[in-house]
Design goal:
The protein is an alpha+beta fold and 329 residues long. Helix content is 42%, strand content 14%.
Length: 329
């Protein structure tokens, strides 16, 4: 029995005893599985699970989700961040509905908006038993440590090397179990910090453990430079109405709503929050938040409009705005 078989069988055995019980694992419905994968992109399971449950309750089928408006989907998504995922989710639901159902090939799944190699492999293997290996952060970590691979995971060379290795380890008849096993193993056993090496079933054959390199792997090239930006928001309240506008297309917060963003403070504006820090992937935002209650509606840029303040909860806002609005209470 070769090392590949040992590695694979050990993971499958570990998974049968330690795998996480998650609601989307109790079904082969591609909609439920796809929804979980999109929600869990860049989101922890503890945070994402309630969202999955709410989406499944409100829109139990892909046809129901496709029939929703983008505003409704964004509002339900509020708080998860990376809102392009929600817009892609909605667009993909309409793709699937137009095609009469989910694609049953990896190529077909990858054609859906917001579905890349990893998500296609996860959906394909779990819902349709397709022999496609997943490669995510957990997989990179487990494979790089076990096999002592120092190729940076965020390079083209690294992505190709790990994808080929992951595929070579996949047992074609147990693709679903194996993919879930290696993801869970990385999340529970071979964690980013303080991994549980002392009781790891792969300890004896783990290169990183043997060579004392667990903390050094996987290797990642230095990221893009982080930039900073300062923002000033004014919450304008006038006779029970407030002014908001929708972020335009091509924007990181596309389709979400916010109060007046300006550099000019009107007389009488009251500071509610100052220097609120909000960290994005490649940018750090610092925001000041003011309340202004004029006697008459002021003139505003053409893309702003007035709504009853009591209706604000019907409009999805970025997480930063959600935090700032808390100052009103």
């Amino acid at each position: 029995m070769n090392d590949t078989s040992n590695f694979t069988l050990t993971l499958l055995r570990w998974f049968s005893e330690n795998g996480r019980e998650l609601p989307w694992r109790q079904t082969r419905d591609p909609y439920a599985i796809w929804l979980s994968e999109i929600i869990l992109q860049q989101t922890r399971i503890e945070q994402g699970r309630p969202y999955w449950e709410r989406f499944m309750q409100r829109w139990p089928t892909v046809e129901a989700l496709a029939a929703a408006t983008e505003d409704e989907v964004l509002r339900e998504w509020q708080g998860l961040g990376y809102y392009s995922r929600a817009r892609n989710l909605h667009a993909a639901a309409r793709q699937v509905t137009a095609c009469g159902g989910f694609p049953t090939t990896i190529e077909g799944l990858r054609s859906l908006k917001g579905v890349g190699d990893y998500t296609a492999a996860a959906i394909g293997s779990i819902a349709f038993d397709l022999p496609a290996a997943v490669v995510d952060g957990n997989v990179y970590r487990v494979l790089s440590r076990h096999y002592g691979i120092s190729t940076p995971i965020n390079t083209t060379e690294g992505k190709h090397e790990f994808a080929a290795l992951a595929q070579s380890l996949l047992p074609e008849q147990q693709a679903s179990a194996y993919n879930q096993a290696i993801m869970d193993f990385g999340a529970i056993q071979c964690t980013p910090t303080s991994p549980h090496c002392s009781d790891c079933p792969l300890m004896e054959c783990c290169t990183a453990f043997r060579e004392g390199k667990v903390a050094q792997l996987p290797v990642k090239q230095r990221k893009l430079k982080i930039t900073e930006r300062r923002l000033t928001y004014i919450y304008i309240r006038c006779k029970g109405m407030i002014a908001i506008h929708r972020r335009p297309s091509g924007d990181i917060w596309q389709g979400l709503y916010e109060p007046l963003l300006t550099d000019a403070l009107p007389q009488g504006a009251i500071l509610l929050r100052q220097n609120v820090k909000h960290v994005l992937t490649h940018r750090i935002l610092y925001a000041d938040f003011y309340l202004w209650e004029p006697d008459e509606r002021p003139s505003l840029p053409p893309d702003y409009f007035w709504i009853p303040e009591t209706n604000l909860d019907n409009y999805a806002v970025p997480r930063l705005i959600e935090i700032l609005l808390e100052a009103l209470h």
